[in-house]
Predict the 3D structure of the following.
Amino acid sequence: MSEHNKRIIERYIEAYNLFDIEGMLRLMHEQVLFRNYSNGVMDTETRGMQQFGELAAKSAKMFSSRCQTITNYSAIADQAEVQIDYEAILATDLPNGLKSGDKIQLKGKSVFEIQEGKILVIEDYS
């Protein structure tokens, strides 16, 4: 993985952790594709910067704090795979029974594809 692409990913994670939606969007390709997989099932997909921004803003309201920590990088073909430790504190109650103030801790990975110096694809797996 190039140092340039690694830095783009690190800047995205930093913006995510700071709830900096505009900072996240500045790193996105206009046609960004985002997918979230939970337990092997895709539960969320957005296409384009507008849909991604709307999802990011909605998601930010769900947490009082959140932190993704990169634990490992690897490059596979034209993609970068990043192992992530995730920790967050909920700001709202969720339909699955989790309550505001509850702490979430997950391990997962994110797969990024970068084109023209912008993030074209993000796939999150947990």
